[in-house]
Specification:
It is built from seven helices and four strands. By secondary structure, the protein is of the alpha/beta class.
Length: about 190
């Protein structure tokens, strides 16, 4: 049987880049293209692979993703081919922190935030995340581990051990626990 694709997913600004760095440090190859450069919002890089955005039209890149980790925003999970198997590390974070981080990034890039209030956006995200979780739970070809951003920072060793077990025990957890940087937790709520 072919190796499943490991996907790091969640809302933007939920810790997906940090998780990709942890997996890489632990010894898992990552599928990235480095087109989006590190900046003040993600000083260690975004760990993105542009082709994931076109997965509905062209999923051929998945062959290169076997045995590797790739980052994908949660809304794209629905577009993955159903005849493949996936292990998803789904990052969760307090919605207020996600929204604050998104707004800070938008302002820094000279873009206005959405016309929606933070509360309205939190309601929309909350609904979408509940729907995504129900959908993932109903798919036999998806194994999912939900990982909280705060837990990664506060219980790093336990989270690294849990991830290692989820991915069948081949990661260097000592290297993984060195990755999270609490000084980058700037939108604490």
């Amino acid at each position: 049987m072919e190796q499943p694709v490991t996907i790091v997913s969640g809302l933007p600004r939920s810790g997906t880049s940090m998780m990709m760095r942890m997996l890489e440090a632990g010894g898992m190859p990552v599928l990235v293209d480095n087109l989006r450069e590190a900046d003040e919002d993600n000083p260690n890089g975004y760990y993105e692979f542009e082709e994931v955005k076109k997965v509905r039209e062209d999923a051929s890149w998945l062959q290169d993703a076997r045995g590797k980790a790739v980052k994908m925003v949660y809304r794209l999970l629905y577009d993955l081919p159903r005849d493949d198997t996936y292990r998803v590390i789904f990052m969760t974070r307090k919605l207020e922190e996600v929204i604050a981080s998104q707004n800070t990034m938008l302002q820094r890039n000279g873009k206005g935030s959405d016309d929606l209030s933070g509360e309205q956006l939190a309601q929309i995200y909350g609904k979408q995340l509940r729907e995504a979780r129900a959908w993932l739970d109903s798919r036999p070809n998806f194994e999912v581990l939900y990982v909280d951003y705060g837990d990664v920072l506060n219980e790093t060793q336990g989270v690294a051990d849990e991830i290692n077990q989820f991915l069948h025990g081949n990661l260097n957890t000592d290297a993984m626990v060195e990755v999270p940087n609490p000084s980058l937790y700037r939108q604490r709520r």
